[in-house]
Design a protein that fits this description.
With about 270 residues, this protein is of the alpha+beta class. Helix content is about 30%, strand content about 35%. The chain has 3 domains: about 50 residues; about 100 residues, OB fold (Dihydrolipoamide Acetyltransferase, E2P) (Beta Barrel), CATH 2.40.50.140; about 110 residues.
Length: about 270
């Protein structure tokens, strides 16, 4: 009986030791798992924070614009001429001109999108940096828009007020244009009409006659273009009186000179 008792005690001790060893191994595995999970969470949080902080304010040095001023917050203040919104890239941007200089501003401030080409604007911005996607998240200096206010109407705004008609347009069924591209062509055509020297177009605008244009693709001297044909609409239909050629790659705009059969650069 005593022998059975000691054997039972030994068996129980062995089971206890094995259970303790298993418990220790499980504890070590759980600790290791928790360590990996914590490291993963820290890495994810760091990456998320890095993505959220794509635009960082920093004392980035840029070539100052002539005549610009600073307010008491160290922000730059200047007067410029609005050119266009650039919303097709990694960052929303505003393109403006001051004298012969072209200025690009990272735009997270102007959400109304109600400026037209040629409008005079009062701009406030600060120096900063933006992260370049796909380039090992490298940073580059940038002007970050703080606020923008129109101070005077430009030619497009005046044209819309005085002419007061929507310009019609058509394009080939073989072409597939996005709505944003069609809007871009519309704004370009509208601006051209404010600057044109074509007497037939100027007369049509003065009389507030309907205008239309067509959009098509063409090749000239090995170069691909988008071609815009502008025409007044008369009682007998429309006849194109001016062709514009737009380079597909660089976006440069040319007037077609029919007598000389050549393209003339248009600003």
């Amino acid at each position: 009986m005593i022998a059975l008792y000691f054997r039972f005690r030994l068996d129980m001790s062995g089971l206890f030791i094995k259970a303790h060893q298993i418990s220790c191994r499980m504890k070590r595995r759980i600790d290791a798992f928790l360590m990996i999970a914590v490291c993963g969470l820290l890495a994810c949080n760091a990456k998320t924070a890095q993505k959220q902080d794509l635009v960082k304010v920093s004392p980035a040095l840029q070539k100052p614009l002539a005549g610009q001023k600073r307010n008491n917050r160290g922000e730059h203040i200047d007067r410029m001429t609005f050119v266009e919104y650039l919303d097709d890239g990694d960052y929303f941007q505003i393109l403006a001109k001051k004298g012969d200089s072209t200025i690009v501003l990272i735009n997270e401030a102007d959400t109304t999108r109600n400026l037209n080409r040629g409008d005079k604007i009062h701009v406030t911005w600060k120096d900063g940096t933006v992260t370049v996607p796909g380039d090992q998240e490298a940073e580059m200096p940038a002007r970050l828009l703080v606020s923008v206010k129109k101070t005077a109407d430009g030619p497009v705004t005046a044209f819309r007020t005085n002419y007061g008609e929507k310009i019609k347009y058509t394009w080939s069924t073989e072409e597939e244009f996005t709505s944003s591209y069609l809007d871009k062509v519309y704004r370009l055509t509208e601006y051209y009409l404010t600057q044109t020297k074509n007497s037939l177009l100027r007369a049509a605008i003065k009389k507030r006659e309907e205008l239309t244009y067509s959009i098509e693709s063409a090749e000239r001297n090995g170069q691909r273009y988008r071609v815009i044909g502008i025409a007044p609409i008369g009682p007998n239909g429309s006849n194109i009186v001016q062709w514009l050629y737009v380079e597909e790659e660089k976006g440069r705009v040319y007037e077609y000179d029919l007598p000389g059969d050549k393209l003339v650069a248009f600003d």
